[in-house]
Every structure is written in structure tokens, then in C-alpha cells.
């Protein structure tokens, strides 16, 4: 294709969304002239399913749940007056609470004001807030936000240690839809202890966002936490950014929550349109289908040329992969669907893996995200008349061209700036695209049955450790091998897991387990000291 033909293809297919100042350019995807027509029946079915979902159908059949994240930014569209009232009263309560915190009306016992937020959560209860905080935050915000999103003890020490003295002015927000996620529970308990060690009453510094009656909800009530904000079963974790999950930290950080919700609402309006050429979410979903043949054979590389959007790929990794990575179709056929997502930011990634994108295995398509506004204020010239921002665009366009020359496909999303409105719009765009794509390939995007297997297996590992420790305590003097100990606890087939547990126990002082003998698993001996 000549440059001239590309220019024409660009103009013909450019999807323009004036309400949020966004364009989607699909000209560098190699779909044929008849592709959109061939997909019409499937696309129409996807639109119908989406319409039903928004009207309150059970769009998540396995869990028999409605899927209501679109109502969070347009409560008037929710199918029942009760839901609408729930959403608006949550929004009002969150805004009022943040106002009181900023004004020092809700204040810590031993400091004048809360100045820090510590968010404890994981997956959908952390990734969205992390993206928003990083994309929109600045050192001028009334509160700085920190995160505990794992059960890594050293990670917790690092974050809690950095807060140090400021723990006395830290408001901890524990977020878990289910209220039973172990990583979050552990982070909460360790945080509670850090407060106690400084003579601070944790409850007076803690807020929960969780489902009614969950373990976390009960714990928060029992320990007289400051507040609990609701999570509902009709909001999925990975689409919960516009529920209290995202709004509590964003309001506390002082971000433009109204703009954020308005951007999403405007994007929702644009992506409800049944005219594919005008609907950027439908086009995205169709391009994903084109790229991977509806089977996810090509990975989605997300390349925003903007530092503030670096966490977008991490956020989309969960949204896309947890939604689309499914074994079964809606009819129960084995389909093993999914699309892998990765990326960080440009031009930084050009100095890392873009070499492979240009010359290596052609198993991906890139989505470039271009932000028109370089910075607040003017830029200096760094070479001739060129600014750093001119370079950023130069690298984006240069890489796009270099990829195209080698037959590697890409799309380009262009936005005006990284504002709350834009970020809200981008989130809404991808939420809709994921939902539409799921219909195109006939899967349930709103459950995650595969996640449970790992959690259950981890539970069994910890049970095994309990038995192992009990055994080691009773056989104190004798050093035994992993094989012997596995036999002792009646789990001879679990010798490998037993060895891994012993290796870990002996590397840490918590249970007094000592290792002796050789380096190889069969030579190692263990005993309680
Ligand atoms: O919010 P929570 O209930 O703590 O869940 C946190 C995360 O954990 C689970 O494993 C799910 O796979 C995610 O979809 C969810 O976002």
C-alpha cells in the first residue's frame, strides 16, 4: 500500500468520538474490504446482547448475576429505582466522606489531618485505583495514595516502612468485593499490627469497601472502623472502578471524579451506537477478532506514549484476560479463548522488546495510544526547534511505520490529554469492547471459574504445612527427609510440596525449622529446633 493509499484508508476508517475528543485509527490493520460486512450478523447479535445486559438481563449466566457497571455512571439507566438510589447514595456518601476528611472533620486521633491513603486490595480491587492514581495524581493532591496489593511480607514492610511516622495520619482503605481474599486479609492484618505498634487504634483509621455481610464487613463492624462503603454482586471486580472501589480512593486523592464519570458516560453513549463505523468499542472488538481469527492467536500490545498511562496495560491485562480467557463457550463447548495483553509505554519500550515486534515472531498487534497534549505549559527546544514532546510523537509514528513496513498490524487511539474525563472514557471504551468481543466469540466475559483452582490448591498446601509443623513439633530431636516427613503425615505423594514447604520454613525463623544435610532435595534433613 502506498503512503497515499494509506492516507485515504486512514480517513475512510477513522472513528471520531467528538464528545470525548478521541479517535480510533484502524487503517494499519490488514482487514479486507468485506470483513465488516461478513461480521455483520455476529456484530448485530453482540449489540443485542449488550442491550439486554444494560437493561438488566442475567448476562453472567453461570453466577446468575446481572452486570451493571454501565449504570455506575448513568444511574438513571439502571433497571430498578432501588439500584439507582443505591448508586447515587453511594456516590454522595463517598463525596461527603472525602470532604469531611479533607476538612479535618473526620480526623485521626493523634494528628490534625489525614494526609495519606493506604489502599489494601488486589486484582479488580487494586488495579483500577492504581491506574487512576498514577494517571491523574500529582504532588499537589490533598492526599497521597499508597498500595498493598500482595501477601509479600517484604513488600508490606517496604510500604509500611516508607509511611513510617506518617502512619498516624494515614487512612487505610481495605477493598475486597468478596471480603474473603487472603492476600487482602493478610495485608489488612499486618497493617493493623503496624498501627498497634505505634500505639494507634487501627479502627479509627480504617475504612472498608466490601459486600454486605462479608468477612471484611463483619470485621470492620466488630472493630468499629470509621466507615464501610458498599460493593454489589452486580458489579464485577474487574469492572468496579466506578463503584466505591475506585471512587473512595479517587475522591480522597482529590481527583476530578465527576469528570471521570462523565467521560465514561459519554463514551458509553458513543459505544451504544449500532453503526460500527461510529462505534470505537465495536471497531476495537472487531479488530481483535480480525487479528486473532476469533481465536486469540495474536497478543494485544498496549503502547501508550505517555508515562501517566503506563499502568493501562496492567489494568487491561486483568480486564481482557480474566474476561476473555475461558475454557468453555456459552454453549458448553471447549474453546480455550483469550487474548494475551502486555506493554508498558513508549518510547521506553522501543529500547526493550520492540526489536522483536519488528523482526521476530509476528504474533501480536499493537495499540498505540497517542496523547496530543505534551504537558501543562510550554516546552523548551531540545534540538533545533524540536521539543521533547515532538520526539515522543516522532518515535510513535516512526515505530508505527517501521512495524507496518514489516507487515505488523497496529491501531492508534488518539486522545487530547490525560485528564479524568479521558481516563474515564478509555476505561469505558475497553469495558465495552471486551463485552462485545465476548459476544463475538460466544463466551461469558463476566465470571472467572479458573481463578478458584489456584486458590483451592493454595489452601491444601497450607493445610499440609499445618500437619507438617505438628509432626515436626512432636518429633523434635530427629532430623528427617522430605520423603520421610511426607510419609509421616500420611501424604507420601506430596513429597515435593512437603520439600518446598520445608525449604521455605527453614529459610525463615518463624517456626524454628532447621535444615541440615546436603543441598539436593534427597540429602536435605529437617527438624524443629
Ligand atoms: O475484591 P476481591 O473479592 O478481594 O477480589 C479480588 C480479585 O480476586 C479474584 O481472584 C478475582 O479473580 C478477581 O476478579 C478479583 O478482582
Overview of this protein structure:
This protein has 529 residues and is an alpha/beta fold. Helix content is 45%, strand content 13%. The chain has helices at 3-13, 35-38, 40-54, 81-103, 127-136, 153-163, 182-197, 215-222, 244-253, 257-271, 280-292, 312-324, 354-359, 388-405, 420-440, 449-474, 482-488, 495-507, and strands at residues 15-17, 22-25, 116-120, 144-148, 170-176, 206-211, 227-231, 299-304, 341-342, 364-371, 410-415, 513-517, 524-528. The strands form three sheets. It has a six-stranded mixed sheet, with helices on both faces. It has a five-stranded parallel sheet with strand order 4-3-5-6-7, sandwiched between helices. The chain has a two-stranded antiparallel sheet with strand order 12-13. The longest helix has 26 residues, at 449-474. The radius of gyration is 26 Å and the shape is globular. The mean pLDDT is 97. Bound molecules: 6-O-phosphono-alpha-D-glucopyranose. 6-O-phosphono-alpha-D-glucopyranose binds at residues 122-125, 176-178, 181, 184, 237-238, 322, 448, 451.
Amino acid at each position: 500500500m502506498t503512503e497515499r493509499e494509506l492516507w485515504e484508508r486512514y480517513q475512510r476508517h477513522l472513528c471520531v468520538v467528538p464528545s470525548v475528543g478521541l479517535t480510533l485509527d484502524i487503517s494499519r490493520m490488514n482487514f479486507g474490504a468485506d470483513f465488516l460486512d461478513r461480521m455483520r450478523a455476529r456484530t448485530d447479535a453482540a449489540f443485542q446482547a449488550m442491550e439486554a445486559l444494560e437493561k438488566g438481563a442475567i448476562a453472567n449466566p453461570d453466577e446468575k448475576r446481572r452486570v451493571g457497571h454501565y449504570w455506575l455512571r448513568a444511574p438513571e439507566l439502571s433497571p430498578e429505582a432501588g439500584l439507582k438510589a443505591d448508586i447515587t447514595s453511594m456516590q454522595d456518601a463517598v463525596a461527603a466522606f472525602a470532604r469531611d476528611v479533607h476538612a479535618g472533620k473526620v480526623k485521626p486521633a493523634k494528628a490534625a489531618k489525614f494526609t495519606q491513603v493506604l489502599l489494601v486490595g488486589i486484582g479488580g480491587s487494586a488495579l483500577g485505583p492504581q491506574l487512576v492514581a498514577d494517571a491523574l495524581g500529582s504532588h499537589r493532591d490533598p492526599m497521597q495514595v499508597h498500595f498493598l496489593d500482595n501477601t509479600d511480607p517484604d513488600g508490606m514492610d517496604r510500604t509500611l516502612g516508607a509511611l513510617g511516622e506518617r502512619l498516624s495520619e494515614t487512612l487505610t482503605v481495605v477493598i475486597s468485593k468478596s471480603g474473603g481474599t487472603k492476600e487482602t486479609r493478610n495485608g489488612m492484618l499486618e497493617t493493623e499490627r503496624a498501627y498497634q505498634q505505634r500505639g494507634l487504634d487501627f479502627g479509627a483509621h480504617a475504612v472498608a469497601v466490601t459486600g454486605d455481610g462479608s468477612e471484611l464487613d463483619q470485621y470492620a463492624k466488630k472493630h468499629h472502623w470509621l466507615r464501610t462503603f458498599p460493593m454489589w454482586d452486580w458489579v464485577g471486580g474487574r469492572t468496579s472502578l466506578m463503584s466505591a472501589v475506585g471512587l473512595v480512593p479517587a475522591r480522597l486523592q482529590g481527583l476530578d471524579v465527576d469528570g471521570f464519570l462523565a467521560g465514561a458516560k459519554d463514551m458509553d453513549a458513543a459505544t451504544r451506537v449500532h453503526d460500527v463505523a461510529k462505534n470505537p468499542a465495536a471497531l476495537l472488538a472487531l479488530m481483535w477478532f480480525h487479528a486473532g481469527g476469533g481465536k486469540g492467536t495474536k497478543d494485544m500490545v498496549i503502547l501508550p506514549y505517555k508515562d501517566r498511562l503506563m499502568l493501562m496495560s496492567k489494568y487491561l491485562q486483568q480486564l481482557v484476560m480474566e474476561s476473555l480467557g475461558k475454557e468453555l463457550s456459552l454453549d458448553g463447548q471447549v474453546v480455550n479463548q483469550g487474548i494475551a495483553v502486555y506493554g508498558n509505554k513508549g518510547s521506553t519500550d522501543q529500547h526493550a522488546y520492540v526489536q522483536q515486534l519488528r523482526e521476530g515472531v509476528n504474533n501480536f498487534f499493537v495499540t498505540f495510544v497517542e496523547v496530543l497534549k505534551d504537558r501543562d505549559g510550554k516546552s523548551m527546544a531540545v534540538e533545533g526547534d524540536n521539543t521533547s514532546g515532538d520526539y515522543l510523537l516522532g518515535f510513535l509514528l516512526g515505530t508505527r511505520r517501521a512495524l507496518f513496513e514489516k507487515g505488523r498490524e497496529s491501531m492508534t487511539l488518539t486522545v487530547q490529554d490525560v485528564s479524568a474525563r479521558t481516563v474515564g472514557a478509555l476505561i469505558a471504551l475497553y469495558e465495552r469492547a471486551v463485552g462485545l468481543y465476548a459476544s463475538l466469540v460466544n463466551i461469558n466475559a463476566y465470571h472467572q471459574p479458573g481463578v478458584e483452582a489456584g486458590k483451592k490448591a493454595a489452601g491444601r498446601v497450607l493445610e499440609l504445612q499445618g500437619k507438617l509443623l505438628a509432626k515436626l513439633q512432636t518429633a523434635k530431636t530427629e532430623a528427617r527427609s522430605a520423603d520421610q516427613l511426607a510419609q509421616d503425615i500420611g501424604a507420601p505423594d506430596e513429597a515435593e510440596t512437603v520439600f518446598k514447604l520445608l525449604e521455605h520454613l527453614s529459610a525463615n525463623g518463624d517456626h524454628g525449622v532447621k535444615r541440615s544435610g546436603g543441598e539436593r532435595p534427597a540429602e536435605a534433613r529437617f527438624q524443629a529446633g
